[in-house]
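does this look right to u?? iron/sulfur cluster version
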Amino acid sequence: MLIPVYAIHPDDLEQQIISAGFKPYRFRQLVKWLYVKAINNISQMTDLPADFKTYLKENYDFSLPSIKQSLTAKDGSTKFVLELRDGELIECVLMPEGNKNTLCISSQVGCSFGCAFCATGKLGHVRNLQVDEILSQVILAAQFLQEKKLTNLVFMGMGEPLDNLDNVVSSIRILQSDYGLQFSPRRMTISTCGVVPKIYELAELGIKIKLAVSLNSAIDYKRQQLMPVTKVYNLVELKQAIMFFRKQSPWRITLEYIMIPGFNMDEEDARALTKFAGDISCKLNLISYNRVDGLPWRSPTIKEATAFQERLRALPIAVTIRKSRGTDISAACGQLAAQSMNK
Ligand code: SF4
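got this back:
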């Protein structure tokens, strides 16, 4: 069986190529095509000799998922629906902004965490993405960008990345590798709903990456209604894990707070949030809830959003209202649900 080439860490790929009798510079030529030029078609790798190409064809799978659909929003964000080998669908979203090109990638098909505001959560857990399926999203985005550079990566697409920790960590190692994409750790963020033991595990692995936590309420009973994971790991436990991670990391934590009018935006919510976040080295992103069909909530008005931000003025940290991207193509936070196309 062929091994997906994008699933192999460059260090291991180099060893395999040398063991097969080829010179190390053949490996360096290959990874330049794979990662610097984002070319996955062997016939386009013009400086490789025929015997090396034959070896590659006989041993590795260079295929990428097919792009089943791509939609570009008014704000320039592009959502890709990708079809995997087994026919499952995932989505990733490319968000250009000035010189910055951020890709939001998926880590699972569906998700088992069932957050009430999230379309992916409604699908349930189908399966984890393999390492090459995670990497493929980055390579396809790089191909789409052509001369422009992909600058930032966020694991905030479909699925809970810490629920597929081994494959996500392997993909991060490839992305950050000198012979991979050389992605700077400070331009990569992993976002979690609060899987406490996995936050500790990630911290202890020493992987360099920024951490974002989807908080959405600092009151346990309310957070439980939005995010069932709170019934397993409460806010005290979550905060301890965040503090632990922060000690191992050079970067502030990002707390994400989806604002839902009539649910988590009154004085009591602001007081609880101020208490929760006040002594964490973090920044707070307030995000307007994006409507998802079948869910009862609405987005806040600009006035409601700024009033909530004002209620948090006592917080000694940066509190920003983050612009939602791609709402008109269902590409914004909580709206990714490619599987609904198939079912
Ligand atoms: S928000 Fe994240 S963790 Fe929650 S259901 Fe959606 S994909 Fe899963």
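The chain has a mean pLDDT of 93. idk if thats expected tbh
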